[in-house]
Recover the amino acids of this structure.
């Protein structure tokens, strides 16, 4: 009797254990913030509504690039916390990863798939045309009139924030030489480049801007070498728009005891004594706003949305007041309002820069 009772008890325990093990988590095909999978069975309020799944494919800088991709992921994390969505990502180590990463997120049945950066544009368009029922959004690219109905383009007036940090550099340089380090030449970085040039010119017509491109967004060593060369030539402030390559620019500033200007995020924490300010491009703001629209069935597929100073999506970093004199910050606020009002039209490429008047 004792043996039979013991056998029965063990059987009950085994069935209970199996029942617990049968609960499966669902994944949206990407990594999550803490590595755990998130169930897809209800929203944050617990009312039984199904969560939407939103995931992103990074550019080659990776999700922890201290810049562009990281800002995007922070936007999705905020949406996960505040909107109750399910967020994930796939990191791209090289450009050939874009296609497979987009396919993986598609196979995982994500509702909205983000491409972070203009380099994903060709593969995203192919994916969108091949999968018309899937929704996509891309940062820093517009397909214009050829935008598929299931794709939203998101672009920034990066030239506006760059103008403001250029103004600060022009006012604060003691050598009348400053530098600009770009990642790779193209429409997006042109905005940073010529906006910065124009800001320097507006603040200080006598200042010279040294310019060099690294031809990479992920080569910190090259960024460091370029910046050191600029400092050797007399520049005392160097602005980078180069993703992970720019981390080397900031490292060079630390070693040389000079100023660097960060980009995309407030990069002061990377070198508090040497990062003068940062040209904020709030990718996180755009990611969050579009994701919220999507959740509210207000997705604007087939269009391109633009974010700038007026939308508080570009500007200077909050930590600017640590090293920039208050009188210059007050001037920056005046310049900012003139840009918003249209009194200053900031150039975004070579042609518009040639037409720009600093008067």
């Amino acid at each position: 009797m004792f043996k039979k009772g013991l056998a029965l008890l063990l059987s009950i325990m085994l069935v209970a254990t199996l029942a617990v093990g049968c609960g499966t988590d669902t994944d949206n095909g990407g990594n999550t913030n803490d590595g755990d999978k998130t169930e897809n069975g209800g929203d944050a309020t617990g009312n039984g509504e199904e969560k939407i799944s939103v995931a992103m494919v990074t550019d080659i800088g990776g999700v922890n690039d201290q810049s562009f991709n990281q800002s995007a992921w922070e936007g999705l994390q905020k949406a996960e916390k505040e909107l109750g969505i399910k967020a994930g990502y796939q990191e791209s180590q090289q450009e050939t990863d874009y296609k497979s990463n987009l396919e993986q997120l598609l196979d995982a049945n994500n509702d909205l798939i983000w491409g972070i950066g203009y380099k994903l544009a060709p593969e995203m368009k192919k994916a969108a045309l091949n999968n018309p029922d899937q929704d996509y959004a891309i940062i820093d690219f517009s397909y214009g009139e050829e935008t598929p109905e299931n794709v939203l383009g998101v672009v920034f007036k990066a030239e506006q924030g760059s103008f403001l940090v250029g103004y600060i550099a022009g006012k604060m340089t003691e050598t009348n030489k400053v530098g600009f380090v770009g990642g790779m030449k193209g429409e997006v970085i042109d905005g940073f480049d010529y906006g910065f040039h124009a800001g320097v010119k507006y603040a200080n017509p006598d200042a010279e801007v040294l310019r060099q491109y690294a031809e990479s967004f992920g080569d910190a060593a090259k960024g460091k070498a370029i910046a050191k060369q600029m400092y050797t030539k007399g520049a005392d402030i160097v602005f980078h728009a180069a993703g992970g390559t720019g981390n080397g620019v900031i490292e060079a500033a630390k070693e040389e005891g000079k100023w660097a200007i960060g980009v995309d995020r407030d990069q002061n924490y990377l070198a508090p004594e040497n990062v003068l300010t940062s040209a904020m491009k709030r990718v996180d703001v755009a990611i969050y706003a579009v994701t919220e629209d999507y959740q509210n069935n207000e997705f604007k597929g087939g269009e391109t949305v633009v974010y700038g100073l007026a939308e508080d999506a570009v500007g200077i970093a909050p930590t600017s007041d640590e090293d920039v004199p208050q009188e210059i910050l007050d001037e920056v606020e005046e310049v900012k309002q003139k840009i918003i009002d249209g009194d200053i039209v900031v150039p975004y490429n070579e042609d518009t820069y040639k037409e720009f008047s600093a008067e």
